[in-house]
Amino acid sequence: MTTIYRAAQSVPLKGGTQSRVGSMLELAARQMVPGGFRPLRGSGTLDFPAASPVKAGLVSRCALFGRLAEAERTVQISAPAGSGKTVLMRSWMAEAGLARRTAWVPVDQEERDPQGFWISVADALRGTAAGSTLVRPLTAAPNLDGWAVVERLLTDLAQLEDRLWLMVDDAHLLSPGEVLPQLELLVLRAPPQLRFVLATRHDLRLGLHRLRLEGELTEIRAADLRFSLAETRALLCATGIDLPDGALARLHERTEGWAAGLRLAALSLAGHPDPERIAAEFSGTDRTVAEFLLAEVLDRQSEAVRRLLLRTSLLERVSGPLADVLTGRPGGERILQDLEQAGAFVVSVDAGRSWFRYHQLFADLLQLELRRTEPNEQTALHGAAAAWLAGHGYLVEAIRQAQAAEDWGLAARLLSDHWLDLYLGGRGATLVELLASLPCRVVAASPELTAVQVAGDLIGGSLEDAGRHLDTAMGALAAVPADRRGRVQVLLSALRLFLARRLVDFPVVAEEARRLLTLTEGGDAAQLGLGEDLRAAAFISLGIAEIWALRFEDAERHLEQGVALAREIGRPYLEFNGLAHGVHGMLLFRPDAPQAERSRQAIELAERHGWGEEPLAGVAYAQFGIAMLYQGRLDESEPWLERAERILRAEVEPAAGMSLRYARAILELARGRHQEALAAFRGAEELAAALVQPPTCVTSMRSRMLQTLVQAGQTGRAEQVLAELSEDERASAEMRTAEAALRLATGDPQATADVLAPVLDGSVCGIRRVRMVTALLLEARARDALGDQNTAGRTLERALDLTESNGILLPFLLDPVPALLERHRRYRTAHPALIYQILGVSGGCAGAGTPPVSRGGLGEIIPPRVTEQLTDSETRILRYLPTNLTAPEIANELFLSVNTVGTHLRHLYAKLGVHSRHEAVDRARALGLLAPSARRT
Fold it and tell me: Given the DSSP bridges, would you call strands 318-319 and 355-358 parallel, antiparallel or unpaired?
């Protein structure tokens, strides 16, 4: 950070006067380091005070210290003024205790005299412990040649045994004529014990590319020197300033971690009665920052460069051709590239170095100077930029520039033409921001912008407003110019589709989706400026609605078509939308269907594109949590559900929010937390009531809520709820299972069996396999209570058959039957490992750590030989070993990585005392962990 102090001392301002910023920064440096560094007016070794900046308790750049300590033979520290280059070198040498092994050569002004520079280098080297005996004295002489000095130094240092550092500060001031080539010779031919650290504002032309290729160059740049948020807090705290998190984050964002900017901000904040407000308002127009940037950067530029900087400061980013338009002169790209290379707070934002942006504080200063020097040009500049950007396809930036120019007609037309691209591209926040920047009167007067308002309402979750604005836009369609009316009509149809999908209004979704699909099959869509993305959106919306309508085959087909088309046309957010909603719905209604691949794709897409905190990502996280929940992996399920609850906005996606609350209720029920489960069920019902056509899962939710009341001992309340149901709902398979649980809890097993009979014999259709397992478990309990243990055993075996086929353990956690399972596994069963796993998951094992046993042919108990109880994951993998699935395929089935499966297999083999998969299967069968082989010998 004392780079600020260094810069203030060493750089004279125009006219040779000392700027006020110099004295202010010197004061800042002394405040930063108790005791301060002694000013260096010439070359020599570093003279540190007793208390170094590191020991003084200020910000320590440990990561950068580590890079310097492990650096190769040459280090180049290249960054703009005030980035902290000098203090990094000084504080590192102080921390490492290397002052006597460092030759420090500051370049205090533009060095054009090679002789003077090399005398400084020789003196600095002689001032070190090692150099004092090796380097001969050097004095100025008319015939002293820089090349000869370099050869002499190479000769003197050839016998160097101890490591020695030569640090050249402000190396960018060295003349490129002779000094730099001579320094390059020294760097390339120096003995390995001589190390170089070169601090510069821009890359030096030293042939460093050779060292880079040879792996002997360490580079530290502006991005490395930027203070992190934590370092920013530490810096401010060291000066007695404690900002709230929000204010600190805004200050860090404004300064971009620039060391001098942060220090100058600290000066402004210190002692101020309202530091939070000052931090929020801090910008490049702050007097101290402005003086520094004027002196160090802007005042050093030519008139042509100043004109370009000022006139392009109104842009988020600038290219050479765009700069040429705004300045009326050619050569903008070359100027921008030179400014970036010179470390003048200009940063390239693309690999081709064709687009650039300015540091935020520097842009603030430039805009202030533009207002001062050309106060009447801003509107024209914004307008010219908007026209150029629109003509070259940079539409968001064009709209913003048109708004800045108050060209509302251009801004409205561009937004009306391109909002769908933003909506389907996952840039909803940008769409909302652009719309909000238009005056209300402009939006109200335009049916097309009213349509855009519908999209904004959908993004914000204001579904009622979306419906109202949609009706308004459709009613005003006649006011749209004839040449644009057809396109607007199609877009309104798309909006009606999107809204109906959110509200689970299947008839409207089907109608509008088919209309759009028919339109996009021909050439009409292309004529209207609409692409295949609208067709993909129609397929995906139709598929999602069909899931909620229980039309699974149609849903699968349309989702596959939509996702494939989105992938083909390069619409990853649309693809993500189809994957997330599709898998989520399928898991809710068909948890036994294989959805692993789509789940992985959805999560990977979110991570790859940085959508991890998007509300849509909450749908993807919920789907993973639900998958784990159905497998009985409660501890793995809960973090996913919690993550989904944090970012999924139920007002935006009420159907997904409903299913998420349903999943939370099931999780709480499985854990025996009945009151929490009931609260979650009520939340799910409230969201379901907001849907046009509440899905059939509402009956399933109500049946589970009734069972929760039963398990909580509120049988009277359960009877009341049951009596209030319609006759049709009470006769459904889901509600019959709930009533069966109620009858069993009130001590009437025969009534339980009677209620379940139509479900088990197929008289009541439409029951899902998961709920069938629940019905079978209740039937087994009822038959056991009636004394019919044979029927109870057969019924339980049937439940195990279904569970073995899909791996869904959840019914055994919601309606546990540990006693029946304990008894059942002691007799002939095809599922001993599954029973062991269920008991382990539900905590119902008969004795902690006791693996299952089996009976021999004469009924004798075979003692277990497992050295340690198998974990739940190991048991799941064990069940796949008798199959032909490979390890990667097993990993795919269990949502695990191949490495994780391999780790579990090694532990499994060790516990079974075997060395191969075949031996593991045989051993597990002998121990009753797996069913006997179907083959007969």
Answer: antiparallel
